[in-house]
Specification:
The protein is 44% helix and 11% strand. By secondary structure, the protein is an alpha/beta fold. It folds into 4 domains: 192 residues; 225 residues, Rossmann fold, CATH 3.40.50.300; 187 residues, P-loop containing nucleotide triphosphate hydrolases (Rossmann fold), CATH 3.40.50.300; 82 residues, no CATH class. Strands 9, 10, 11, 12, 13, 14 and 15 form a 7-stranded parallel beta sheet that branches. A 6-stranded parallel beta sheet has the order 3-8-7-4-6-5, with helices on both faces. Strand 14, helix 21 and strand 15 form a beta-alpha-beta unit. The relative contact order is 0.10.
């Protein structure tokens, strides 16, 4: 085995903090090579047109990704232990060799396998740098030139040592394949690299995912649905029969298109029906790898997970390994945090729209690590109307079509207020019709029933209200009542004011941890089941769609037509109030001290009010209505702005594409609330990622310093909450509302 001039074993990583020896270069390179190839082969099995040379390029990048670490100066630093800075950037050597051998795909991957990830093509190739030098773009030209000169001087030594350790490997000439294919290839390399490093540090392998067993799970799902109660009243029996008909129709559907729409309205059992349809597709010849359910709000995921665990987990299985929830961004870039990352490896993955779509657009290794799990998946985009703002659909639709048409995915877009953006040339390039999963005759009957179940109206004739005026209107409405605000701050202010006025109030928003939201949601469900009295839930849009809650009436801060229609699904949901006049949703506008205006609630709110005045919300098909509203909003905005995201993607400007594709224009940080978790993380005791997600929240980055939050020791990407936290009511907003500076801040807390 090759050693350095002092007869010491060559390393890939410094000794860990636990006193282990350094990680041998040979062990790590071989581990990454095998891991990257294994991931690539699993992914490429579903590629309809196998990208030329992509597997060989991924393997070549894995073999040479750490070539520069063989530098004597880097080896000397490694032996000192972690925490010491390196003069040379080890990435340049792999790039230099792979580009010299004309495998530009592998050179791109080697260049991007550490943060900041994939660079801008023009920045690299217009000025002649061609991926060489140092990885970060903010360093001086002198530093780049110094690095290139050093690599060129030392590379023969690196290659001789490498070949003596790893063995010879003939690199093939390959052109780069840009866009989604580049991201997928990088995902295979990064996941293998991170997983192998974590294994050496901890001695632990990630648990193997359970087998898909789609046929058994589908049978279990059918048994679960068919065993549900038929109902005690005529109305319940009629509604449950519609649910049964819809489920059986989806189960037996012969639609086999890769992209499908579903306009299922409230209470039809969309989750189980669409899951049955997609599991049938998963049993096709290639056997899809997993079911990925994407929803706009975390509490929807929680309810879906609870329901599917009852229906799909088989005897002897661990529910949390069969069905995982990825509640929000947990893509830690620092090596000490990698084992906490969520990797979408289970048979059934539940994740947010933010996480899913921002992963498609990512360029950094931490975010892209899980992307290779997506090809060959059945993807259920639940409450698709709220998944993305319209401005992001042109490029994201291209990616969705590529996943469906080139990477073996089967995709259903579903909602009770489905915006058919894919039919309009002013939004997508190449409009198309999608087959509808719900039969047209059943759809017509459901729309008619919906119009009898719930009505929509303006509160106070549409005038702008003060908080105390809103409280007066709510107090006089029949309970139980739902009040939805546009921002976390507005919801906290209104909830506190209502409780201070003597009302019986519960509060639910992302100011609470996932753990505490579950407790409060269970409390809400119990009260709705047993207490039809005078109480109110104040919440954000997290309860607007997809959750199985039913109130007597609702008040919705003015936002958009789709949002208001969705709130109708939380009122008289099962027809339980139909004999008492049915349900009603009131639209209102709010302005008062501390009340912030959502940046997206401008033109859409004006369009909504006009539709209310014209009576369209009580008359038109929901999908037709929200599609009309979307077109009117685009018209008033002068159409979509120049699509910079499409431009950035076409120009291979990966950092710009990532920036422009952000679903929520808010830079947030991961903040741990739970004291026990904070202590474990401080001591570097392993923490299960589910527990971490359950005990944390997200806070805007620019508010971190104002709140005096500090990073947890040894964790660059995780902060600790150090102020008042109210787990039963306002969460971290209990501390924020005491701060007059924040109440004067006009920038809304919207996450």
């Amino acid at each position: 085995m090759a050693r350095d001039r002092n007869d010491q074993q060559l390393l890939a990583h410094s000794p860990s903090k636990g006193g282990m020896p350094g990680d041998p270069y040979q062990r790590h390179v071989n581990g990454v090579r095998c891991g990257a190839r294994e991931r690539a082969e699993a992914m490429l099995r579903y590629a309809s047109n196998l990208p030329l040379g992509i597997l060989e390029s991924i393997e070549a990048a894995a073999i040479f990704h750490d070539l520069g670490k063989l530098d004597p100066e880097i080896q000397a630093v490694f032996r000192k232990g972690r925490g010491h800075s390196l003069r040379w950037d080890h990435i340049d050597a792999g790039v230099a060799y792979l580009s010299h051998e004309q495998n530009w795909m592998a050179a791109w991957l080697a260049r991007a396998h550490h943060s900041p990830g994939l660079p801008e093509w023009a920045d690299q190739f217009v000025d002649g740098r061609r991926l060489r030098g140092r990885r970060r773009d903010d360093e001086t030209k002198e530093r780049y030139d110094e690095q290139i000169e050093h690599t060129d001087l030392m590379i023969k030594l690196y290659l001789s040592l490498h070949e003596a350790i790893v063995g010879p490997y003939a690199v093939q000439r390959r052109c780069p394949i840009h866009g989604l294919a580049m991201r997928l290839a990088l995902s295979c390399l990064v996941d293998a690299d991170h997983a192998d490093s974590a294994f050496y540090d901890t001695g632990r392998l990630a648990p193997a995912a359970p087998n898909q067993r789609w046929d058994e799970r589908l049978n279990a799902l059918c048994e679960y649905v068919r065993s549900l109660p038929v109902g005690e009243t005529d109305a319940e029996r009629a509604r449950n029969q519609r649910r049964s008909d819809f489920f059986e129709g989806c189960l037996r559907s012969e639609i086999n298109d890769p992209l499908v729409a579903c306009e299922a309205s409230v209470g039809l059992g969309k989750t189980t029906a669409v899951t049955a349809y997609l599991m049938r597709r998963a049993l096709d010849e290639k056997k899809l790898r997993r079911l990925i359910i994407v929803a706009p709000f975390t509490n929807i995921l929680t309810q879906i997970a609870d329901r599917l665990r009852k229906a799909l987990v088989l005897p002897g299985e661990q529910p949390d390994q069969v069905i995982i929830e990825h509640h929000h961004r947990a893509d830690f870039s620092h090596r000490d945090d990698r084992e906490l990352a969520v990797l979408w490896g289970a048979p059934i993955v539940l994740t947010t729209a933010v996480s899913f779509f921002e992963t498609l657009a990512a360029c950094d290794p931490a975010s892209l690590r899980k992307l290779h799990a997506v090809p060959g998946s059945a993807i259920f985009l639940d409450e698709a109307h709220a998944a993305l703002p319209t401005r992001l659909w042109p490029q994201n639709w291209k990616w969705m079509r590529e996943l469906a048409e080139q990477w073996g995915c089967r995709i259903v877009l579903a909602s009770g207020s489905l915006v058919r953006f894919w039919e309009h040339h002013d939004i997508v390039d190449g409009p198309m019709k999608l087959p509808e999963l719900m039969p047209s005759d059943q759809l017509q009957g459901v729309v008619h029933d919906e119009q009898r179940r719930v009505k929509f109206a303006e509160a106070a004739s549409g005038r702008v209200l003060k908080v105390n005026e809103l409280i007066g209107l709510v107090k006089n409405a029949p309970g139980p009542r739902l009040v939805i605000l546009n921002t976390v701050q507005n919801a906290a202010i209104v909830a506190k004011a209502m409780r201070d006025s003597g009302l019986d109030v519960l509060h639910l928003s992302t100011a609470l941890t996932a753990h505490d939201r579950k407790i409060i949601l269970a409390r809400i469900e119990r009260r709705l089941l047993f207490d039809f009295g005078d109480w109110t839930l104040v919440a954000t849009s997290c309860v607007e769609a997809g959750v199985d809650l039913s109130f007597r009436c609702a008040f919705r801060e003015r936002f958009a037509a789709a949002s208001t229609i969705q709130v109708g699904g939380r009122v008289n949901r099962h027809g339980e109030y139909s004999e008492h006049g049915g349900g009603i949703v009131y639209d209102f506008a709010l302005a008062d001290e501390g009340i912030t205006q959502h940046p997206a609630a401008d033109v859409s709110a004006d369009v909504l009010r006009e539709l209310l005045v014209e009576g369209k919300l009580n008359r038109d098909n929901p999908a037709d209505l929200v599609t009309l509203a979307m077109r009117e909003e685009l018209k008033r905005n002068g159409g979509l702005p120049s699509d910079l995201l499409v431009k950035a993607e076409s120009e291979r400007d990966y950092p710009k594409a990532k920036e422009l594709a952000r679903v929520i224009d808010a830079d947030t940080r991961f903040v741990v609330i739970d004291p026990h978790l904070k202590e474990l993380l401080r001591k570097h005791i392993p923490v299960d990622f589910r527990a971490l997600l359950e005990g944390s929240v997200q806070v805007w980055a620019h508010k971190i310093e104002k709140l005096g939050l500090e990073r947890l020791h040894g964790h660059r990407d995780i902060y600790a909450w150090n102020d008042t936290y109210d787990p039963d009511f306002l969460g971290y907003m209990s501390a924020v509302l005491r701060n007059e500076e924040f109440l004067r801040d006009k920038e809304a807390w919207i996450v």
